[in-house]
Amino acid sequence: MTGRRQEIRERNRLSLIEAVLDSVAEKGISETSVSEIIQRANLSRGMIHLHFGGKDNLVDEAARYSSEQYYNGIYDLLEATGQTGQEHIEMIVRGDLSETILNKKNVSIWYAFRGEARNRAAIAAFSDTRDAKLRNLVFNAFARIAKETGTEHPNQVARDATHGTLAMLEGMWTDYLLHPDSFDRDEAMRIVFRFLRAMFPKHFDLNGAVLSE
Amino acid sequence: MTGRRQEIRERNRLSLIEAVLDSVAEKGISETSVSEIIQRANLSRGMIHLHFGGKDNLVDEAARYSSEQYYNGIYDLLEATGQTGQEHIEMIVRGDLSETILNKKNVSIWYAFRGEARNRAAIAAFSDTRDAKLRNLVFNAFARIAKETGTEHPNQVARDATHGTLAMLEGMWTDYLLHPDSFDRDEAMRIVFRFLRAMFPKHFDLNGAVLSE
DNA sequence: GATTTAAATGGACGATTGTCCATTTTGTGA
DNA sequence: TCACAAAATGGACAATCGTCCATTTAAATC
Questions:
Q1: Are the beta carbons of A114 and B168 separated by less than 8 Å?
Q2: What ipTM was assigned to the predicted interfaces of this complex?
Q3: What class has domain B82-213?
Q4: C-alpha dihedral over A170, A176, A182, A185, to 10 degrees?
Q5: A195 to chain B nearest CA, in Å?
Q6: How far apart are the first and last CA of chain A?
Q7: CATH annotation of A75-213
Q8: For the residues B206-212, what does the mean pLDDT come to?
Q9: B125: distance to nearest CA of chain A, Å?
Q10: Can you name the CATH fold of A1-53?
């Protein structure tokens, strides 16, 4: 009646997924073997086949789970902010570069899966950091900003600003991947906002990152 | 006397490296086995041990070689351009997004190695797309531009512009990785230059990408 | 052309891979 | 408490992994 059985089952299932993510983060994909996974999850060898039908499916599921965690993190932040375009943008940029989201483990996992994306459709589907939903949020925020500036082609400007901003954030992640210890979050933020301020002087004038010079 | 012996030896060595890169591009790192490599190179099993002492060393060397190819491509372009800051920047951006450098094979290889970078120091050393040399080139170009604008802190502005521009290019590469068929080079270029125009209106006004709206 | 020797071959080897199922364990309902 | 069934176990299995070396091939030297 307690459903204890199903509860244990689901806990084990999740243990396997988290074991994969831990292993991928620490050892990389190529060293994430079945033996490695079941050892970390402290479960028996047959569990992978039982729960996922095979190792590949488990890894795909781990990629999906990891991606979901990322988006949940971002969306949670957005609910705690104001409604103006610049507030949204600022929160997304700040969140994307925050310790909670941009940290060694997440970055290791993210890039490990990216490396496999080209050869595994299931992984490619979950390795786009900037999915349609997030893109739309950013676009709508920029569209509001662009319209307020009275520019000639606000949608086109907003589209380009979205694309460029998300690309720049991607690049910052890569910086962090390659130089995690010398990476400076404030600097990254300041740079993104310097570009945004250049495009929308009235909206990002005193906002955003530390404006040190 | 002809050195025919050494010539064959070096050709075989190179065949192994190129076989690794082909395999990594087509099948990914995890499926790039010794058997796969020697089959592509049409050489015998022992050659890897003979030339490189083991598979790992060969893969590291392939990463180094691939990185070298990238930089040579960029530097070649720079020699064929003018000397103003904006000409340099434009050539680097244009080159970085050109078919010669940004194509499916290169991107597959690059991201495959990136995925391993965190766990293999030898690969990490060669997976920084924007090494000190290239960074300096970009920085010097922006420094000249910034000084001409008479801004207050030209070096700081140039540093940020360098960081932001290279980050944005990284992001464009990721776009290409994940959506190679819908990726639009002109659009990517236009966006980069839209940001640069916002920061340096006088220098990128009529330059760079197609200015369609 | 004979000799020397560097280069290349290809299979043997033990270790490790992922899959799968006969068996055991354990929660659930009678 | 017992019988049932779902869940978990752990080892057998063939396949594949990378390494290494005894042997063969062929370029270089005499």
A1: no
A2: 0.91
A3: mainly alpha
A4: 60
A5: 6
A6: 64
A7: 1.10.357.10
A8: 42
A9: 9
A10: Arc Repressor Mutant, subunit A (1.10.10)
